[in-house]
């Protein structure tokens, strides 16, 4: 009796009670059953359904219905809502409605990853395609087929909480520009390795770009099943962890702090905003500041996570343009070693594996100094913004996993747009 | 019924008043008395008595010259460029020759600006001089010619001042707006304009040879090669004839080459439609803007323009606004500045428009469409 549409988990929507079809337009109706006093389930169903409607980041998404798999496929969500009325609490259920259009090739269409990218401008002379295969993008690990127009292609499978992810390395060494990866995937596997924004005390999936109302400090996380960056119990800090395949669990979180050039530490979280929320990339913006000086509390930290990435791409900005940014450091000292390219420091890695077998990594395209005692990077010339990457390297697990290679991958991003097309 | 602004051209406007507009208002808008008065549109409404006529122009989003009334309630006209010269070449054309054997750019623009109807704005000095003379010609055509010779442009601001200089000097070298279907919102230094982008590529103006007939001689310049073939596989040859009696002896080849360079590639333009209110506040006609829609093949093919926007590094196409047609929407202020300088507030009676604004954007750097067909294999 489970219906999964988009990222909405099977348990959220509860029973499907009626399905009506007219051509490729299908309407599902059902009810969210709740406990006597708990509105949370109905509210989440409402927010998640609304988030799917005319979603600019997910114009097409998957639909899987265990009761009648002939409906499984890819759809555009045209409408959806949950009616929350006073009688619902007494009844113990709330009705919902979902209106979808099946896209051409509905059951198993092609997905085209339109890739545009070049090497990041950087202060370290990292060249196009450093170390051979720095450009990359990830697709679900259980794809049926994959085609590309790359010069060459090597792959690596990374396995995380949501299943395997196949990371493709086109091997371009001369910039890149526009590329195309085309794959077929079954609807059930669509979100393998996809980034997901989670919010609230129980960290449920946010769909669309509107966060439910509430305190931004209630809890948040951004995860792709391989790597997770989340809020910390200490305001203004973030915690990172990685998926341990050996134990099918997350590693012990590591806290990261942010300091300005005068060593004042960010200690206020004021807001969370969703910037992007698609299956290939999700991004949030944190509003940050200093409790000691609210007048300078205009800092933002954008955190972006791609499918298949072992690091988050971040942009820390001082909206007041005071230009005092900045230092990104481990909150608890953990010794590190500089990552260098042709003699220039571009980041830092932990000096040794932690108890879970991971090494923290940080890198930036700006000229940075490294703090090998605390563990961190800082802009050599403080400014109003600092782009950086932060991640966890898996020890000894393949060509593309060492800390320096993660840094090269950070410096070679693709802006990816997923388009579902017919065959 | 909207306003159309065009780069270095008059454009047009149409303001419709509601059918219940009192006669006491519309009788003050007769063409016979108020022709060449000015319609002034502000992004917000101010009571007419709260601002002076000069302040009104300073706050204006758009100023148009009233030239036609259709029925009782529809006012039409063109942009203030008609004061430089209208669509038919009419205007305060110089009756006495303006001649400058060693005229600088600023000297030329200073003397070509019509007295009275336009005020001097900012003229940016350029290197070099121009030996030329003009008489009886439209001042707009003459300013176009002088600007072309110095690699410059001109614009007339809503306060009826004339500016002239390079595009970078007039509009700033770096775009401050990104047109894209996926986002809106502002970043540090970049404003988002959510828009539907459609690229248009054509070879309708494509030319392989220019025959230029100058004052003293004719020359032909050609492209070294072309990628286009006719039906039997020969290179296409498309000759354009340019009559240019103003081109002096010895300058024919350079002028012909500059003409050829304008049209020796497939033309690439983009149309953008946006629901944004008063979009020209952020992206005025003439401005440099970013365009980003890789699904439609709109991105920077050189990879040199790296822009961070809303959580992602992108490489947008650097483009320029050629024209914009935008609706007169509720919330704006609409005024008529009568020929005696008094201001009539029409805001209360305007038939407001809805719908999207439409931009025409020049994107000569757009990449070619070709993407190699992937060779499908089982992963």
Topology (elements, then pairings):
The complex is a heterodimer of chains A (423) and B (379).
Chain A (H helix, E strand, L loop, with lengths): L2 E3 L4 H4 L1 E8 L2 E9 L6 H13 L8 E5 L7 E10 L3 H6 L1 E10 L7 E8 L19 E4 L4 E4 L5 E7 L2 E7 L7 E8 L11 E4 L4 E2 L14 E4 L3 E5 L6 E7 L4 E2 L3 E7 L7 E10 L3 E9 L9 E8 L4 E8 L6 E6 L5 E6 L2 E7 L7 E6 L4 E4 L4 E8 L1 E10 L8 H8 L4 E7 L2
Antiparallel strand pairs in A: 1-4, 2-3, 3-6, 4-5, 5-6, 7-12, 7-31, 8-11, 9-12, 10-11, 13-14, 13-15, 15-16, 16-17, 17-18, 17-19, 19-24, 20-21, 21-22, 22-23, 23-30, 24-29, 25-26, 26-27, 27-30, 28-29
Chain B lengths: L2 E4 L2 E8 L6 H4 L4 H4 L3 E5 L10 H7 L2 E9 L3 E5 L19 E6 L1 H8 L6 E5 L6 E5 L4 H12 L2 E4 L4 E5 L1 H5 L5 E4 L4 E3 L2 E13 L6 E5 L4 E5 L16 E5 L8 H12 L3 E8 L13 E4 L15 E3 L2 E3 L2 E10 L6 E5 L5 E3 L11 E6 L12 E3 L2
Parallel strand pairs in B: 7-10, 11-13, 11-18, 14-16
Antiparallel strand pairs in B: 1-2, 1-21, 2-5, 3-4, 3-22, 4-5, 6-8, 9-10, 12-13, 13-17, 14-15, 17-24, 18-21, 19-20, 21-24, 22-23
Helix pairs in contact in B: 4-5
Structure description:
With 423 residues, chain A is mainly β. Chain A is 7% helix and 48% strand. Chain B has helices spanning 23-26, 31-34, 53-59, 105-112, 139-150, 167-171, 252-263, and strands at 3-6, 9-16, 38-42, 62-70, 74-78, 98-103, 119-123, 130-134, 153-156, 161-165, 177-180, 185-187, 190-202, 209-213, 218-222, 239-243, 267-274, 288-291, 307-309, 312-314, 317-326, 333-337, 343-345, 357-362, 375-377. Chain B starts with a strand and ends with a strand. Chain B is 14% helix and 36% strand. In chain B, strands 11-13-17-24-21-18 form a six-stranded mixed beta barrel. Chain B has a three-stranded mixed beta sheet with strand order 7-10-9. In chain B, strands 15-14-16 form a three-stranded mixed beta sheet, with helices on one face. Chain B contains seven helices and 25 strands. Classes of the chains: A mainly beta (423), B mainly beta (379). The interface between A and B is large, with 48 and 28 residues. β9 (145-148) of chain A pairs antiparallel with β25 of chain B, so a sheet runs across the interface.
């Amino acid at each position: 009796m489970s219906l999964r549409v988009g990222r909405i988990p099977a348990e959220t929507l509860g029973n499907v009670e009626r399905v009506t079809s007219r051509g490729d337009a299908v309407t599902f109706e059902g009810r969210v059953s709740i406990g006597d006093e708990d509105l949370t389930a109905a509210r989440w169903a409402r927010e998640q359904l609304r988030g799917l409607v005319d979603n600019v980041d997910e114009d097409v998404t998957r639909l899987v219905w265990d009761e009648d798999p002939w409906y499984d496929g890819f759809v555009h969500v045209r409408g959806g809502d949950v009616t929350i009325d006073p009688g619902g609490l007494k009844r113990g259920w709330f009705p919902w409605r979902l209106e979808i259009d099946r896209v051409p090739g509905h059951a198993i269409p092609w997905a085209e990853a339109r890739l545009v990218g070049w090497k990041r401008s950087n202060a370290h002379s990292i060249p196009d395609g450093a170390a051979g295969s720095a450009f990359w993008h990830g697709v679900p690990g259980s794809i049926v087929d994959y085609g590309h127009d790359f010069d060459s292609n090597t792959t690596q499978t990374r396995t995380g909480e949501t299943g395997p992810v196949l990371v493709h390395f086109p091997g371009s060494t001369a910039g890149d520009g526009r590329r195309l990866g085309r794959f077929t995937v079954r609807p059930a596997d669509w979100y393998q390795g996809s980034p997901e924004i989670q919010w609230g005390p129980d960290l449920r999936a946010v769909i669309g770009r509107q966060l439910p109302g509430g305190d931004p400090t209630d809890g948040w996380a951004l995860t792709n099943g391989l790597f997770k960056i989340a809020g910390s119990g200490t305001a203004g800090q973030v915690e990172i962890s990685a998926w341990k395949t050996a134990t099918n669990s997350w590693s012990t979180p590591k806290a990261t702090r942010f300091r300005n050039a005068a060593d004042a530490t960010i200690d206020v979280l004021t807001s969370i905003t969703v910037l992007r929320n698609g299956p290939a990339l999700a991004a949030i913006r944190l509003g940050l500041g200093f409790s000691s000086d609210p007048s300078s509390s205009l800092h933002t930290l954008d955190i972006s996570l791609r499918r298949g990435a072992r690091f988050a791409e971040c942009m820390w900005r001082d909206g007041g343009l005071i230009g005092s940014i900045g230092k990104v450091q481990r909150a608890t000292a953990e010794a590190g070693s500089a990552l260098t390219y042709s003699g220039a420091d571009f980041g830092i890695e932990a000096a040794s594996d932690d108890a879970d077998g991971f090494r923290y990594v940080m890198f930036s395209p700006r000229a940075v100094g490294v703090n090998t005692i605390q563990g961190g990077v800082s802009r050599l010339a403080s400014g109003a913004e600092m782009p950086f990457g932060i991640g966890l390297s898996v020890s000894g697990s393949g060509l593309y996993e060492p800390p320096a290679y993660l840094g090269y991958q950070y410096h070679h991003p693709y802006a990816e747009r997923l388009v579902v097309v017919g065959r | 019924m909207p306003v159309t602004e065009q780069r270095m051209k008059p454009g047009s406007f149409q303001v419709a008043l509601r059918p219940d507009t009192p006669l006491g208002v519309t009788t003050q808008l007769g063409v016979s008395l108020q022709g060449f008065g000015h319609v002034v549109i502000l992004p917000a409404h101010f009571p007419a008595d709260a601002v002076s006529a000069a302040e009104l122009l300073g706050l204006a989003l758009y100023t148009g010259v009233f030239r036609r009334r259709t029925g009782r309630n529809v006012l039409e006209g063109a942009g203030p460029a008609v004061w430089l010269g209208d669509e038919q070449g009419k205007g305060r054309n110089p009756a006495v020759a303006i001649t400058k054997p060693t005229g600088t750019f600023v000297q030329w623009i200073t003397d070509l600006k019509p007295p009275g109807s336009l005020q001097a704005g900012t003229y940016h000095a350029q290197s070099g001089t121009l030996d030329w003379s003009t008489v009886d010609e439209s001042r707009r055509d003459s300013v176009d010619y002088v600007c072309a010779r110095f690699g410059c442009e001109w614009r007339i601001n809503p306060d009826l001042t004339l500016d002239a200089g390079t595009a970078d000097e007039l509009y700033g070298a770096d775009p401050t707006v990104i047109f894209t279907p996926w986002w809106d919102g502002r970043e540090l230094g970049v404003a988002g304009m959510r828009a539907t982008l459609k690229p248009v590529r054509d070879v309708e103006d494509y030319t392989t040879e220019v025959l230029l007939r100058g004052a003293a001689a004719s020359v032909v310049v050609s492209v070294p090669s072309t990628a286009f073939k006719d039906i039997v596989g020969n290179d296409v040859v498309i000759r354009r004839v340019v009559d240019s009696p103003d081109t002096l002896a010895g300058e024919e080849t350079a002028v012909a080459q500059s003409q050829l360079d304008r049209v020796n590639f497939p033309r690439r333009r983009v149309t953008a439609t946006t629901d944004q209110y008063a979009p020209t506040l952020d992206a005025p006609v003439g401005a440099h803007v970013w365009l980003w829609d890789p699904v439609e093949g709109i991105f920077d093919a050189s990879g040199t323009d790296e822009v961070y926007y809303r959580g992602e590094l992108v490489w947008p196409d650097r483009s320029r606004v050629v024209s914009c047609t935008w609706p007169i929407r509720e919330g704006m202020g609409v005024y008529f500045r009568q020929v005696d300088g008094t201001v009539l507030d029409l805001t209360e009676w305007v038939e407001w428009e809805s719908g999207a604004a439409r931009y025409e954007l020049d994107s000569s750097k757009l990449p070619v469409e070709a993407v190699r067909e992937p060779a499908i294999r089982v992963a």
